[in-house]
Design brief:
The complex is a heterodimer of chains A (328) and B (511).
Chain A (H helix, E strand, L loop, with lengths): L1 H17 L1 H23 L1 H4 L2 H26 L7 H17 L4 H26 L3 H19 L10 H7 L2 E2 L3 E2 H19 L1 H11 L1 H6 L4 H27 L10 H11 L11 H20 L4 H25 L1
Antiparallel strand pairs in A: 1-2
Helix pairs in contact in A: 2-14, 4-9, 4-12, 4-13, 4-14, 5-6, 5-7, 5-12, 6-7, 6-12, 8-12, 9-10, 10-12, 13-14, 13-15, 14-15
Chain B lengths: L4 E12 L2 E12 L3 E5 L6 H8 L7 E6 L2 E3 L4 H6 L2 E4 L11 H5 L6 E3 L4 E3 L1 H15 L14 H14 L4 E5 L7 H16 L3 E5 L3 H7 L2 E6 L2 E7 L5 H9 L21 E9 L8 E6 L3 E5 L6 H9 L6 E6 L2 E3 L4 H6 L2 E4 L3 H5 L6 H11 L13 H15 L15 H14 L4 E5 L7 H16 L3 E5 L3 H7 L2 E6 L2 E7 L5 H9 L5
Parallel strand pairs in B: 3-10, 3-11, 6-9, 9-10, 15-20, 15-21, 18-19, 19-20
Antiparallel strand pairs in B: 1-2, 1-4, 4-5, 7-8, 11-12, 13-14, 13-16, 16-17, 21-22
Helix pairs in contact in B: 4-5, 8-17, 12-13, 12-14, 13-14
Classes of the chains: A mainly alpha (328), B alpha/beta (511).
Chain lengths: 328, 511
């Protein structure tokens, strides 16, 4: 009897290895390879060049940075819709500081920290009101966009030191954009946090079962706060990076970027129901978004079509996630 | 002259895979009577209700309604024949108004040229008539979510009257009502009786039964052990019938010595109160080596008491002492740091983490407890994690392929052991078990009982809340009976019997 049961559970474990884990590990990667292959076949002349790699890396970086923060918000079964507005506001403030004569490096640091503070505000609001993060961040999304418009008088800010833009846009060894290195370093740090620290483990626990986490003595409110702060910090970093790449602070910058961030996290295998997902997947998800954007330009397809493809990908990958979950 | 028989159950038997819920049940409901159904948890009351309402098909036997014999009923039949069950979990739709709830699915309509529209005038008029009958003085347009529980119950009764039900079965209708509300409900029940309807009243509260009932049927192990006129029996008679002639001795722990008073006091709760009245000035002591159990009816507030002790719910007042020193338990975090642990009632909702494997579930607490390496920002020690899990796996005899297996693949009993392992890994001193064997098979139950005894013998404090009396009698040295937020009796094991516990738990208002 006992032996039978053991056998049965082993068989089940094997079954899962073939389908479930395979999708979770390589599914996203497969999509990325597929997309790159399509581009390589369609435009072999343009595709196989050094500048292609550089461009894809650079274009993906902002998406990846925002998605890394969004990942944490989704991991606790929440969401952060304010990230696009945080990018715009931190970029705007950083630009204005530099125009006012503050040293670029200090402005940069202050911009990133501002992102953290904005995230903290989201967290406090979620904790204090008990409302779903969707509602809170939908509100702050509008508020922060409004603040950006107010402080900029609804017009773009430029004229800050060229050294800033030049430094941000530099390609290390003429090949790897600095911004990509920043994004990947951030990913490495956050991956370490999720996998190796108690903080990370507690966040996964909170996402998996909020009630059980409370009974297990996890400080639910503190961890919610930390999660939104991480999301804000990542968006702040993305704001500064975007500013450097674009060369001016637009009040309407990064509009709709939360959609890309959510898409990257979900395509990357993060469960919308909380508690499941990996940083590596999010990075791949961010690259997929970048490749789609780049590929559309390369194929000279209208940018409007990008939205359609993006939308289809979101639905497809989440449906597959659900399918796999039900299969269990 | 005898009143007309509305429904008669004849030798109904109902088997589920592995269990016989009803073995041979016969009883009848007459017009104009309140027929009380009494029995312990698991005696077969809910199966009986579900057969009458057409949810379950009997394995054998029949139900006679209006002289016509039915082998089985469908929900549609039950509806058509005027049988209505009012479950404890009310089935009103909170967002709709009272009148919409009354006529949901059969709204009165007006014919227009091309389509039908809802006839609100007619609906209001009929709703008012029904509310009058059940004595609910509320505008029929009020959303149901604005009503109190007893008012919602009145809406349910009105709903039964809306389809002119002749037999109304009420499943523990007074479980969550205040004294005043019970009086009101009884007035409504008397009015229904006077209209010639038959009422089946399910309750554990003996004084209420004696007051409202006309006849009583006692269920035990799926059979009718006697139908009596209420006027002919005493509360003691009923308890004896319910518990049965042979008291199950086999579970009892014979080696358990009484007289724990001499032992060192391990844990003490003094004057604990909750704002919602689920705990009112509760005090108790747990001695070294003792297992203290809490018996009581569902809704008496035992889980709520434990939540307050553990810091999962706010306390209004009260002290908690471990080894004679006061400890603070304002949150589970504080309680855990101070050595408390709680195995909650619902494993799935408040126990394990479905997204974690066995070892992650077990080793979670030491991490929060900052047992190793610097607070929340500390690193996970994977070797420690693994060792910790393997240790508990061996100690608790958790059956699994490996500690890397997802916890969701385990049986209920093994999941419970994983949760227990988590607390033991955290070296908790006082373990609170809330319904520790809910949904667990018999073999695992015995194992869990043995583990609890081992824990107590090794010097840990064990508190148990359970609704299964044989379970409490099997594992506890002392049993406290909890009723409406208070400990009303404490029985040492030698004096505890099913009879006196049931009597103490059900005695209700003893004014």
């Amino acid at each position: 009897m006992k032996g039978e049961r053991n056998m049965a559970s082993k068989e089940r474990a094997k079954e899962k290895l073939t389908f479930n884990t395979l999708w979770q590990r390589f599914g996203t990667f497969g999509i990325l390879i597929l997309l790159l292959a399509i581009l390589a076949v369609a435009r072999p002349g343009h595709f196989f060049s050094v500048s292609t790699v550089t461009q894809i890396l650079a274009q993906s970086s902002v998406n990846i940075l925002i998605a890394l923060g969004e990942f944490f918000a989704i991991l606790i079964a929440g969401i952060d819709l304010s990230v696009g507005s945080v990018v715009a506001l931190t970029g705007m403030v950083t630009a204005q500081l530099m125009v006012a004569g503050v040293h670029p490096l200090l402005s940069l640091v202050l911009g990133v920290l501002l992102g953290g503070v904005l995230g903290l505000i989201n967290g406090v609001l979620v904790n204090r009101t008990g409302l779903h993060p969707f509602i809170i961040t939908l509100g702050t999304q509008a508020i922060l966009r409004g603040v950006t418009l107010i402080i900029s008088n609804s017009s773009a800010v430029f004229g800050f030191p060229a050294s800033f833009t030049r430094t941000i846009s530099v390609n290390v060894f003429g090949l790897v954009p600095l911004v990509a290195i920043i994004a990947l370093l951030t990913a490495v740090v956050l991956s370490f946090l999720t996998r190796q620290t108690k903080l990370g483990r507690n966040i996964y626990a909170l996402g998996g079962n909020r009630e059980a986490a409370w009974y297990a003595g996890i400080n639910v409110k503190l961890h919610t706060l930390i999660v939104f702060m991480i999301s804000g910090l990542c968006a702040g970093l993305a704001g500064v990076v975007l500013l450097g790449r674009v060369g001016s602070a637009e009040p309407a910058a990064a509009t709709g970027f939360e959609t890309y961030a959510i898409a990257a996290a979900i395509i990357g295998g993060t469960s919308f129901f909380g508690g499941k997902g990996k940083i590596f997947g999010v990075v791949i998800g961010g690259f997929i978004i970048g490749v789609i954007n780049f590929g559309m330009n390369l194929l000279s397809l209208p940018s409007t079509l990008q939205q359609v493809v993006m939308g289809a990908l979101i639905i497809g990958s989440v449906a597959l996630d659900r399918f796999v979950a039900n299969k269990k | 002259m005898q009143a007309q028989t509305l429904v008669q159950m004849k030798h109904v038997r109902k088997e589920f895979p592995g269990v016989t819920a009803l073995s041979d049940m016969s009883f009848d409901i007459r017009a104009g009577e309140v027929h009380v159904l009494l029995g312990e948890n698991g005696a077969g009351k809910s199966t009986l209700m579900k057969i009458l309402s057409g949810v379950h098909k009997p394995t054998s036997g029949s139900v006679v309604i209006d002289g016509k014999e039915y082998k089985s009923l469908t929900p549609h039949d039950a509806n058509r024949l005027g049988i209505r069950v009012i479950y404890q979990e009310l089935s009103v739709i909170p967002t709709l108004s009272i009148r919409e709830n009354l006529f949901v699915g059969r709204l009165p309509v007006k014919k227009r040229a091309f389509f039908h529209t809802v006839d609100y005038g007619e609906m209001q008029r009929r709703a008012e008539g029904l509310l009058e009958k059940v004595g609910l003085h509320r505008d029929a347009r009020t959303p149901v979510e604005d009503l109190s529980i007893s008012e919602k119950q009145q809406v349910e009764i009105a709903k039964a009257l809306a389809v002119d039900s002749r037999v109304i079965i009420m499943d523990e209708p007074t479980a969550s009502l205040t004294h005043e509300e019970v009086r009101h409900l009884f007035a409504v029940i008397r009015a229904l009786k006077a209209q010639g309807r038959g009422i089946v009243f399910i309750s554990h509260k003996l004084p209420e039964i004696m007051e409202i009932g006309d006849r009583v049927t006692v269920l035990k192990d799926g059979a009718n052990v006697g139908t009596k006129q209420i006027a002919d029996v005493t509360a003691d008679d009923l308890v004896t019938m319910m518990v049965g002639r042979q008291i199950r001795k086999n579970y009892q722990n014979e080696s358990a010595p009484d007289g724990f008073e001499q032992e060192e006091v391990l844990f003490e709760v003094k004057g604990l109160s909750r704002r919602d009245g689920k705990a009112r000035d509760v005090s108790f002591r747990l001695h070294k080596g003792e297992i203290l159990g809490f018996a009581g009816l569902v809704g008496a507030g035992r889980s709520e008491l434990m939540d307050a002790v553990f810091g999962a719910a706010p306390k209004q007042s009260g002290q908690i002492l471990l080894h004679g020193k006061e400890i603070r338990t304002k949150s589970p975090y504080q309680a855990i740091r101070n050595g408390l642990a709680m195995v909650t009632e619902n494993r799935r909702e408040t126990g394990f983490f479905h997204n974690f494997d066995i070892k992650q579930n077990i080793s979670l607490l030491p991490f929060v407890k900052t047992a190793r390496g610097g607070g929340t920002l500390g690193l996970i020690d994977r070797r420690f994690e693994k060792r910790c899990a393997e240790q508990q796996r061996k100690a608790l005899r958790i059956k699994c392929a490996s500690v890397n297996q997802p916890v969701t693949e385990l049986s209920g009993g093994n999941q419970q052991k994983v949760i227990l392992g988590r607390w033991l890994a955290a070296q908790s001193e006082i373990l609170i078990f809330d319904e520790p064997t809910k949904g667990i098979d018999v073999g695992s139950k015995a194992e869990i009982y043995a583990l609890m005894r081992e824990l107590a013998d090794s010097g840990k404090g064990v508190l148990v809340v359970s609704s299964e009396l044989p379970e409490l009698l099997a594992v506890c040295d002392t049993i406290a009976v909890y009723r409406e937020g208070e400990i009303v009796r404490v029985f040492p094991h030698s004096a505890a019997t099913e009879e006196n516990i049931v009597l103490a738990a059900a005695a209700g208002d003893t004014e």
